[in-house]
Write a structure and sequence with these properties.
Blueprint lengths: L2 H17 L3 H8 L3 H15 L1 H31 L4
Helix pairs in contact: 1-3, 1-4, 2-3, 3-4
């Protein structure tokens, strides 16, 4: 694996842990796709630093369980500000 990819995977995991960030927020911050973030955390990082990968996956699982709530709140907010 190339060095910069390994470094990016570690940086992404640290960002997720530090900021309790979602995959989408992380992808935007690093200028990569959501798929890349997911691959870095689940596959690549597991080979580099399994402990860090496990910590990041815990946060991603929590975010995954809560995403339907966030989506509902975003929709509610959208329609509260919509002019009829």
């Amino acid at each position: 694996m190339k060095g910069y990819i390994e470094e990016r995977a570690v940086d992404i995991a640290n960002y997720i842990i530090k900021n309790n960030a979602t995959v989408r927020q992380t992808a935007k911050q690093f200028g990569v796709s959501k798929s890349t973030v997911h691959k870095d955390v689940t596959a690549r990082l597991a080979l580099i630093n399994p402990d860090l990968a496990a910590k990041a996956r815990v946060i991603l699982e929590i975010n995954k369980k809560e995403r339907h709530i966030r989506g509902g709140l975003a929709t509610k907010e959208k329609y509260l500000h919509k002019i009829i």
